[in-house]
Amino acid sequence: MSISPEASIGQNDVPSQRRADERSAAERAVRLLPLVRQATERLDHVVAGLGEDAVHQPSGLPGWSRAHVVSHLARNADGLVNLLTWARTGVEHPMYASNADRDADIEEGAGRLAQVLIEDLRASSDRFMAAAAAMPELAWSSGVTARRPVPFPAANIPSMRLHEVWVHLVDLDAGVTFADVPQDHLEHLVAEAVTRHINRPDGKRVRLTVELPGDRERVWDLVNGRDDPRHDVSGSAAAAIAWLTGRSDGDGLRGDVPVLPAWG
Ligand SMILES: O=C(O)/C=C/C(=O)CC(=O)C(=O)O
C-alpha cells in the first residue's frame, strides 16, 4: 500500500501546524487592511483641511508642529514598506537608515508647503497599501525588527500602521480625539499600545481591564513575573489608549493608576 505524503505527515504534526499558523498570521494581517484604509482616509481628510497656516502651528506633541506629525506619518509609511519588503524578499531592509536619519527627514519634511505635505502623505500611504496588498501569504510570518531590537512577524505591521495613524491623528490637535476612533478599531489600538509596555525592565506591574464594544472586557498584564504590588486599572478603550501612549495621565481610568514609563 502506498501512503500519500499528506497522509504520512498527518494533521497534527509540526509542518501542518506551522502552515495553519502561517495562514492565520496572514488572515490577521489582511483583515486589518480595510481598517488601515479607513483611518488613512480620515487622516487625508483632516490634513487636507488644515491649510498653509494651520499646518505649521504646534501639534499636541512637544516641539513638533502639525507638519512634523504629517511628515513623520509619511516616513513611517515608507519605513513600514521597508519592513514589508524585508519580509517578502528575505533581504534585510531596516525601517530607517538610523534614528538620526529618521529625525532629520522629519525635521526637513516639516518645512514644506501644505500641498507638498498632503501629496507626500497620500503617496506614501498608497505605497504602504500597495506593498501590503502584494504580500504573499507566507511572507506575513517572516520575522523583522523595527527600531526596537525585538523581532516580530510582518503580520503585525498593519496593526502598527493603524495605531500610528490614529494616535497621530489625535496629535494633530485638529478636532479628532480617541473617542472618535471607530468601535471596530479600538481593540487593535489597545493591543498595539500594550505591546510597548510588556515586560519592560522599567515598566509597572499593571493588570489593565479594558471595556470593549459589545459589552466585552479584555485583560492585559503589562509586566509579569515581578513581586512588586500590582496596580489594577480599568476603563474605556479610548482612555486606555490615551494613557498607554502617554497622551494622558490616566484621565477617565479607574483604580490605582501608576505613572507609566515614557512612550517610545
Ligand atoms: O515598534 C518599533 O520598534 C518602532 C516603531 C516606530 O519607529 C514608530 C515610529 O515612531 C516611527 O516610525 O518613526
UniProtKB/TrEMBL annotation:
GO terms for molecular function: maleylpyruvate isomerase activity; metal ion binding. Its EC number is 5.2.1.4. It is an enzyme of class 5 (isomerase). NCBIfam families: maleylpyruvate isomerase family mycothiol-dependent enzyme (TIGR03083). This is Maleylpyruvate isomerase. It comes from the Bacteria. The keyword Transmembrane helix does not apply. Residues 1-23 are annotated as: Disordered. It comes from Actinophytocola algeriensis. Keywords: Isomerase, Pyruvate. Residues 36-172 form the Mycothiol-dependent maleylpyruvate isomerase metal-binding domain. Residues 1-15 have a biased composition (Polar residues).
